[in-house]
Specification:
- About 45% of the residues lie in helices and about 15% in strands.
- The strands form 3 sheets. A 5-stranded mixed beta sheet has the order 2-1-3-4-5, sandwiched between helices. Strands 6, 7, 10, 13 and 14 form a 5-stranded mixed beta sheet that branches.
- With about 450 residues, it is an alpha/beta fold.
- α7 runs parallel beside α11.
- It has 11 helices and 14 strands.
Length: about 450
């Protein structure tokens, strides 16, 4: 008896541990992601390879030597013929700043649109250099930000409006089990159009951005690229999709975007991600549209288009794979749920016992027994929707136990049958995030009076 009690206690503890692990993996992932991707990236902004055009090659060589000693790897000096060339290099986005070391009028050319923190670091660095030559540094801002964005970070938060809802809408659409794939894709297109227009109008009303409508198609590219890529990842990531989406489009995208902290001030890993992540490329393209007369926007636009193509390829590839698989298994395929391809997870039978981490959690489970309490092994349990369409079918094991998973919140009918016994039907309400236990008793069929087994 003591052994049985200990065994039952262990069986109770193990499911609890698995439940906690499956419940907490996402917040733990989020905690670690913010710790590494935000605290590590932002806790100590330091200049890395900030390009500065310096008038006069001789002055540039001396300045490069001095800056390398004071801040190794912090600045890359680009010699130019004169102050006008230094100024133009900033406008052409070839360098981050320009410096003219004229003793009478030392001038630093900056672009606040690249980030006020970067502007501040450049001013602090070149002010003593100008003082050593006997002059007072004049700072000229060639790309001042909009009146409602004095810190130069307003555009970053506007891009968040276009970025985060673009994958959140995919997670919400996963609940819409009655919508077809085509309808969902059209919804994503319409959602992207709404985000791009509404976000632009809101930013304009708050004076966060200049009046340049050309940014709206770029925002639409970002939104659609993120939403379609997220949509295409669902069948592959399955129950881990929220972590994959958050990892890609928040934890990695935001620190590498160069919006909150200029990209020249973050660690090398995030600087390497900057040219390929969608959020950073929209920020670069938007800066070009708003503050640099369209200079340097081609490459970011091509990257945004590439993300859009990745999403299309993922969706089309999985649809083609599903079609071929359905054709190969046409003889045994049962009627599926409407648009099962992109649901997360799919209605499916799961083992009644020995549930492991990463597997689907049962939504409905229970036992099938006789009125005397004997298990009815091999009993068939068919789950249908209220229209009679079969969602999933499973068979009870030798102990009469069964379990199914992946059912969305809805009313379903459980049809239980076994050879030689009366069938039974029960309608229940399935709720997401909860496991419902439904036990059944099947009575034996009575043999008609006078019937013989050998007749």
């Amino acid at each position: 008896m003591a052994d049985e009690v200990e065994t039952k206690t262990n069986e109770t503890k193990q499911p609890l541990a698995r439940t906690l692990a499956e419940t907490l993996w996402f917040p733990v992932f989020f905690f670690c992601g913010f710790l590494v991707c935000y605290l590590l990236a932002f806790h100590q902004p330091t200049p890395h390879h900030v390009k500065v055009a310096v008038a006069d090659p001789a002055t540039a060589a001396k300045l490069e030597t001095a800056l390398d000693k004071a801040s190794p790897g912090g600045f890359d000096i680009v010699p130019v013929p004169n102050g006008d060339a230094a100024r133009q290099s900033v406008l052409d986005r070839d360098t981050t700043a320009g410096f003219s070391a004229d003793p009478a009028h030392p001038t630093l050319y900056v672009a606040k649109a690249d980030g006020s923190m970067l502007e501040s670091i450049l001013t602090q660095t070149f002010t003593p250099i100008a003082a050593q030559g006997g002059g007072t540094l004049a700072v000229v801002d060639l790309a001042p930000t909009a009146s409602g964005d004095p810190m130069g970070t307003g555009m970053f938060y506007l891009v968040l409006v276009w970025n985060i809802p673009s994958y959140v809408v995919v997670m919400m659409l996963l609940r819409a089990v009655t919508m077809s794939r085509r309808t969902k894709i059209l919804t994503l297109v319409g959602w992207g159009a709404f985000l791009s227009v509404a976000g632009y109008l809101a930013g304009l009303a708050m004076h966060v951005i200049p009046n340049e409508p050309a940014v709206m198609p770029l925002a639409f590219l970002l939104s659609l690229g993120i939403s379609l890529t997220s949509f295409g990842l669902v069948p592959f990531a399955k129950q881990f999709f929220p972590g994959v989406a958050m990892g890609l489009f928040v934890l990695l995208s935001m620190p590498s975007s160069g919006g909150a902290i200029p990209i020249q001030l973050v660690p090398g890993f995030f600087r390497a991600l900057h040219p390929i992540m969608p959020m950073g490329n929209l920020i670069e393209a938007a800066r070009g549209v708003f503050y640099f007369h369209g200079v340097g926007i081609l490459r970011p636009i091509l990257v945004l288009c590439a993300w859009l193509l990745v999403g299309i390829a993922l969706i089309a590839g999985h649809a083609l794979w599903q079609k071929r698989r359905a054709q190969a298994d046409a003889a045994v395929v049962e009627a599926p749920v409407e648009d099962p391809t992109l649901e997360m997870p799919r209605p499916t039978a799961v083992p009644a016992r020995h549930h492991h981490f990463g597997q689907l959690v049962p939504v409905v489970n229970g036992t099938v027994r006789t009125p005397d309490g004997e298990p009815v092994g091999g009993a068939a349990i068919t789950v249908t929707d209220t229209r009679g369409q079969q969602l999933v079918r499973t068979v009870a094991d030798h102990d009469g136990s069964y379990a199914v998973a992946g059912l969305s919140q809805q009313f379903v009918d459980l049809v239980v049958s076994a050879p030689g016994r009366y069938s039974t039907v029960r309608r229940i309400l399935v709720r997401e995030g909860a496991t419902r236990t439904e036990d059944f008793e099947l009575e034996g069929r009575r043999q008609p009076v006078g019937a013989t087994s050998g007749a």
